[in-house]
């Protein structure tokens, strides 16, 4: 009969807490971590507060919220819309019925048909205007000029002030008649909106503002300064000419200086419009707006500066526009924005045509320094650009189709942050010759369009001088000079057809595409490195974990072998048969012998022996062996199998310095 075995005792731990380096209790460790996190958070908040103080300006009243500002703008807009509706109703009532001589309708002085023109004296004699000094006349009533009548205000050196107050405003409107405003070359006529309550120019539009308009008639302006006029719409924009398909509206504007108008000069449904030697400054919206099927517009030696939207805006339906010797600068939108697309895409009740409108000549002009871009032309046939300087904050000249008949010659096209010339969306039969084109990455960009490039000078920073893309794209190049650097001076892609006659001249430096991409995205590279470093580190982590698993397996085998050896000591052999009188003493079970943990020795750690190049760890040196102590296993793993001391220490969960010390002692032992 065998005796019951005593319960197994795990024995004392292999290493003490001090040997493991665990000299601080778990509770204290968590407390230290919480304090560290709190300190880091407080430091971050402190830095943020200091930066806020550095950038903070003087203390002032809080600015209105964005929502409040939007609500206020909507209220102003709603009020201006109501004023415009009332203004349209007033003019419709005046236009009805026959008008002969001078009359008043709804507080408006109506000038009826007659042979002789009405003059400034006519306004003064009827009480619609008052002379307050030798050079100042104040118009106190709205004036309407009916068909068959002409208002001729020739007053050199005179300031004609159109009353414009919060309680109401005046206007000079021709409804089928004609208006002429003129001064002399040295002594212009000044026409301006004037707030008689404050005796100051009217600079606000929310309560309406005085304006000048000719509908279905003629407008003549010569040697005139127009200021502080117009609100909300084109027809009340300040200086406007409006017509219709049944009537003719014409204008001749020369030597006019137009400042702070809602729209500098608004032309709608007019034909035969001429504007020469004039300046438009600080319009709230467009400087010159041509719309609603206007045609035959010629603008010569006109400067538009600091427009709130586009310098010149040509909307769809307008055709045959010539801009010669114009300067368009400082607009918040484009310098020149043209839309020639059809008013309808198919049969329609209005009878509009379904083809593109045509005709834009930009001659000997300068378009530069405009926020959105220089020149953009959409779906307009027969565009001519010659002897012009076009420079955009993004691209220079952008033509998008469908359109046909583009001729660009002897010009300079520059895109400060884009292409100098862009032809896109089915531009057909385009020719570019004798032109200097400059861009950042692309000089000339051709997308699904067709172009001939002849004797041009094209310069880019890093990219391609000419890039042609799209299965319908075709480019023919001859005699061009292309300067820059990149993977190719000319690039064709996505099925594009590129034909070059002769070698391309110029200084071109080859740069690989990958290097170009890295240069263009230099700001992204540090972030990519942040990702690459952990990815590289993953390889080392996986390798180290594989080595740890191998060491743990060997350690487990050693421990199992030791356990089996210890368990075998508990087996009690069957006692021999003895006489009953002398029973044998029961055998005493012996406890398994355990090796005491080595005492901690505080010594300076020695450098870890470097493994030879190409060294592989010899796990076989440990396999199948039994070690009396963990120290013996550690020494064998480092000295015989060649594992790093740091890896062995991590597996055994002891300080690395301890493993190095054991290995050094074993190596130094005789």
Which labels suit this protein?
9 helices, alpha/beta, single chain, 35% strand, elongated, 28-stranded mixed sheet, 16-stranded mixed sheet, disordered N terminus, 670 residues
Account of the 3D structure:
This protein is elongated. By secondary structure, the protein is an alpha/beta fold. It contains 9 helices and 44 strands. The chain has a 28-stranded mixed sheet that branches. A 16-stranded mixed sheet has the order 1-2-5-9-13-15-17-19-21-24-27-30-33-36-39-42, covered by helices on one side.
Topology:
Elements: H1 17-20, H2 26-55, H3 66-95, E1 102-105, E2 108-111, H4 120-126, E3 129-131, E4 136-139, E5 143-146, E6 150-154, E7 159-165, E8 168-169, E9 171-175, E10 178-182, E11 189-195, E12 200-201, E13 211-215, E14 218-229, E15 238-242, E16 250-261, E17 263-268, E18 271-281, E19 288-291, E20 295-305, E21 312-314, E22 319-324, E23 327-329, E24 334-339, E25 358-363, E26 366-368, E27 373-378, E28 381-386, E29 389-392, E30 397-400, E31 403-409, E32 412-415, E33 421-424, E34 427-433, E35 436-439, E36 442-447, E37 450-454, E38 457-462, E39 464-469, E40 474-478, E41 481-486, E42 490-493, E43 497-501, E44 508-510, H5 513-520, H6 525-568, H7 630-640, H8 645-652, H9 656-668
Helix pairs in contact: 6-8, 7-8, 7-9, 8-9
């Amino acid at each position: 009969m065998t005796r019951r075995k005593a319960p197994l005792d795990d024995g004392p731990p292999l290493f003490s807490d001090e040997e493991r380096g665990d000299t601080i209790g778990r509770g204290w460790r968590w407390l230290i971590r919480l304090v560290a996190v709190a300190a880091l958070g407080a430091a971050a908040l402190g830095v943020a507060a200091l930066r806020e103080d550095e950038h903070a300006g003087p203390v002032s009243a809080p600015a209105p919220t964005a929502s409040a500002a939007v609500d206020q703008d909507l209220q102003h807009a709603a009020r201006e819309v109501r004023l415009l509706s009332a203004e349209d109703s007033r003019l419709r009532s005046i236009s009805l019925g026959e008008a002969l001589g001078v009359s008043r309708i709804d507080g408006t002085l109506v000038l009826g048909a007659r042979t002789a023109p009405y003059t400034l004296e006519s306004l003064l004699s009827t009480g619609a205007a008052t002379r307050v000094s030798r050079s100042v006349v104040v118009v106190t009533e709205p004036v309407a000029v009916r068909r068959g009548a002409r208002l001729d205000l020739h007053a050199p050196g005179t300031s004609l002030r159109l009353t414009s107050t919060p309680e109401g405003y005046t206007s000079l409107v021709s409804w089928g008649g004609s208006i002429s405003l003129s001064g002399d070359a040295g002594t212009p006529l000044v026409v301006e909106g004037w707030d008689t309550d404050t005796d100051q120019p009217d600079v606000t539009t929310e309560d309406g503002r005085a304006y000048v308009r000719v509908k279905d008639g003629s407008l003549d302006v010569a040697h005139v300064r127009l200021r502080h006029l117009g609100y909300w719409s084109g027809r009340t924009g300040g200086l406007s000419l409006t017509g219709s398909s049944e009537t003719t509206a014409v204008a001749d504007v020369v030597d006019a200086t137009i400042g702070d108008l809602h729209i500098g000069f608004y032309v709608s449904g007019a034909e035969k419009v001429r504007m020469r030697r004039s300046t438009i400054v600080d319009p709230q919206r467009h400087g010159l707006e041509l719309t609603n099927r206007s045609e035959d517009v010629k603008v010569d030696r006109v400067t538009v500066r600091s427009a709130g939207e586009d310098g010149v805006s040509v909307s769809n339906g307008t055709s045959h526009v010539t801009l010669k010797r114009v300067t368009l600068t400082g607009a918040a939108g484009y310098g020149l924005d043209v839309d020639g697309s059809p008013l309808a895409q198919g049969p329609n009740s209005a009878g509009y045509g379904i083809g593109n409108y045509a005709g834009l000549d930009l001659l000997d002009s300068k378009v530069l320094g405009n926020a959105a871009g220089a020149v953009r032309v959409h779906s307009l046939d027969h565009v001519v650009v010659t002897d012009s300087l076009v420079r955009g904050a993004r691209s220079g000249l952008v033509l998008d189709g469908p359109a046909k008949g583009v001729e660009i010659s002897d010009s300079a096209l520059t895109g400060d942050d884009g292409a100098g010339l862009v032809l896109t969306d089915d531009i057909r039969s385009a020719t570019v010759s004798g032109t200097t084109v400059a861009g950042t990455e692309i000089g000339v960009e051709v997308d699904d369009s067709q172009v001939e490039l002849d004797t041009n000078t094209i310069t880019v920073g890093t990219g391609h001088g000419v890039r042609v893309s799209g299965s319908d794209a075709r480019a023919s190049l001859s005699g061009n000079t292309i300067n820059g650097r990149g993977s190719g001076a000319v690039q064709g892609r996505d099925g594009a057809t590129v034909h070059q006659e002769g070698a391309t001249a110029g200084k071109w430096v080859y740069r690989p595409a990958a290097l170009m991409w890295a240069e263009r995205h230099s700001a992204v590279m540090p972030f990519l490195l942040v990702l690459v470093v952990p990815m590289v580190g993953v390889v080392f982590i996986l390798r180290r974990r594989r080595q740890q698993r191998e060491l743990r397996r060997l350690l487990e085998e050693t421990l199992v072998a030791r356990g089996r050896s210890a368990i075998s000591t508990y087996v009690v052999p069957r006692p021999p048969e003895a006489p009953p009188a002398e029973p044998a003493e029961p055998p005493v079970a012996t406890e398994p012998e355990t090796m005491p943990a080595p005492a901690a020795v505080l010594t300076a750690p020695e450098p870890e022996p470097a493994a030879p190049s190409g060294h592989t760890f010899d796990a076989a040196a440990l396999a199948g062996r039994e070690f009396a102590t963990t120290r013996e296993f550690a020494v064998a793993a480092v000295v015989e199998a060649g594992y790093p001391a740091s890896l062995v220490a991590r597996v055994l969960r002891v300080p690395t310095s301890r493993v190095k010390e054991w290995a050094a002692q074993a190596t130094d032992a005789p």
